[in-house]
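Practice record 12: protein with iron/sulfur cluster.
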Amino acid sequence: MIGKSAHPTGVLRANQVGGAEGAVPGSRPDEPASPAWALALLSWFEGHRRDLPWRRDPTPYHVLVSELMLQQTRVDTVVPYYERFLRRFPDFAHLAAASEEEVLRLWTGLGYYSRARHLWQAARQVVARYGGNLPPDRGVLLSLPGVGPYTAGAILSIAFNRPAAAVDGNTARVAGRLLALDATTARGHRELADRIEAAVPPGRARDFTQALMELGALVCLPPPQAPDCGRCPLAAWCLWCKSPQDRSSTGAAGARQPKPGPRVVPRAVLVVACGNRVLVRRRPSRGLLAGMWEFPGTDVREDGPRAAALRTALDLGIALGLGIAGGLGVGQNCGHLGSAEVDLQGPAVHYAHTFSHLRWEVDVYWAKLPPAPGILESTGMEGGAGPPTVLWLRAADLASQVPLPAAFRPVAAFARSLVEGGAPPGG
Ligand code: SF4
């Protein structure tokens, strides 16, 4: 078992870890001693760290982007998004200069889109106030949109190598089990953060924070999985491991409270096609999928899917008559169409999409409009004053034109088959 050869006092100087890999650069004899477990953790990390793209050059920008992407999202999922995002926006300045819509489009598929909006707003703030260079100041970090104590601690420690705790569910579970502290209470959380900060070996904050994260991801797993104490470098010191009878008090940091299942919301969505184009609209700037684009639709309440779809058609009539007229100049070509004149068909497709707190049960309806020259000739993205809220876009390149969330992928696929002349399944 790794870590069994600890100093008998349980406390080691940083430079007492054996071998060149264990040496702590910059440590001085007068610096406070780190707990032996902290040094054992560092040694383990040197042999087990995963090569992740944000670890190669941990600038404040890279750490901020990766930490926001990693919230609620698995590492494997994040890697390609991170790499693509960095190719397009290599630093705060590039991100700040982009449009919100482009940032959302590159984020499409990662979910939790408020993170993308916060990141973009943070970049604009960093450029406007600090010339694109984020200072190592906790107060400044906490003033950025989307940055809380955990992310501030991660940036301070990983990017600036400052001794700061980054306590989220993952690190709270590891340290909570190790030190028998319950981080689910405010007091326990504070004590845990203090103990972690005090344990950082001098000059090694960057690796220490990542090591704690890595141990939580690879070894000290959350329920319902069991921690793999047999291959844990902290087993010699871990109170969870040593005192099974005390787990009820320390387990709180490791256990997830059972969450209620997502609320089920039936939803009717409408594909309106005209030639090779389909109608999409921007969602409101607040709430679920704020600012993203969608096929027109509506939640279905007690009066059933068909009635709801008809309400959607009514929305469509309003969109056709009013929304498009100002932006694309095609309203005069189809503004006469009201919901009564749309020949609504379906449902053609049924699928479910689950968000963190709700689950859409989607029925897809469709309608084909007679050719309208204004729609067929438009490039789709030209507009009048202000950003458009309703657009006719080619079904084949929706994803490259607007941020269309993953929740609408099945609808986009159906829309493509509809305009390409395929028989609408189930329609
Ligand atoms: S010994 Fe077990 S419970 Fe303790 S930190 Fe390691 S994996 Fe987690």
